[in-house]
Structures are given as structure tokens and as C-alpha cells.
Amino acid sequence: MAEEEIIEEANITISSNVDIPPTYCPKCDALLPEGPGEKKCGSCSAKVNVKLPSLEHEWKNERIACPACSKVLVAGIGARPCKLKCSSCNQKFTLTKKIMKSEIACPGCERKLRVKRTPGEKLLKCPACEKEIKIKF
Asked: 121 pairs with which residues across the strands?
């Protein structure tokens, strides 16, 4: 029984499997911060109310395996992060947003690089050829 209590109180985080669609500013076409709600454009400072009913529906109906007993659960909550509890083993865990990444090719060596998709410009260094790469999402 002591082991069950330890498992139940464990701080476990699982990433969602649902892709968050990119949204763009209607004024300047720059990438907005991901997810639904009021977002501020990093380029032109416009405030945009992003509604993603299909994303909320997918999150609510997302099926996820319990990290302790592997029982398949339906999240039932249309937001991320959310705290869940397995109905079979009482394991508690947090379901977070999926970290969205984009793939780019290094202009120096053509190596494929995966970078986190965030608004604004970034300056990266290729780990293979050390060429500096400027990207904007």
C-alpha cells in the first residue's frame, strides 16, 4: 500500500499528441503565440482573439494512456495543461500542450534541423557546420 501512495503522489507530466495549428496575425501575417485566447502579435502589437474550436474538441476527446497502468483514458478537458486522474489506479498526472517544432535545412550543409515554432526572429548556429542561421516564423 505504501508503494501505491508513492505512485499516486508522483509528479508525472505527459505531452499531448494533438497538434496545435499555427495562427497568423491578420494585420501583418506574423506567427502568433500558439493556442486559443487573446494573443498579442510580436511584430505589430495587434491584439487578436484566436478561436480554435476544433483544437478544443480534439483536446477534450484525446485518448491518452495512464502512465501507471496503461489504461486508455479520454481527457475530457478542452484545455492544456490539465490535471487528470486515472479511474482504475488513481494515478494523478498532468497533460501538457504538444511542443510544436518546424524542420528547416541548414543553408551551409543541408542538415535538417528541428526548431521550436515560436513567433519572431531567431539566430541559430548549425551544430554540424557552425554556420549562423537567421529564421523568422
From this structure: 136
Q: How does pLDDT run across 112-132, given as a tens digit for each residue? A: 998 888 888 889 899 999 999
φ/ψ of residue 5, rounded to 5: -65, -40
C-alpha cell at 93: 498526472
Q: Say how far apart CA 128 and CA 8 lie, in whole Å.
A: 43
Q: What is the spatial distance between Cα 132 and Cα 56, in angstroms, rounded to a whole number?
A: 38
Instruction: Please give the residue that has the higher pLDDT: either 82 or 4.
Output: 82
How is the chain split into domains, by residue range? 2-136
Sign of the CA dihedral running 82, 87, 88, 89: positive
Cβ-in-10-Å burial (0-12, 13-18, 19+) of 66 comes to buried
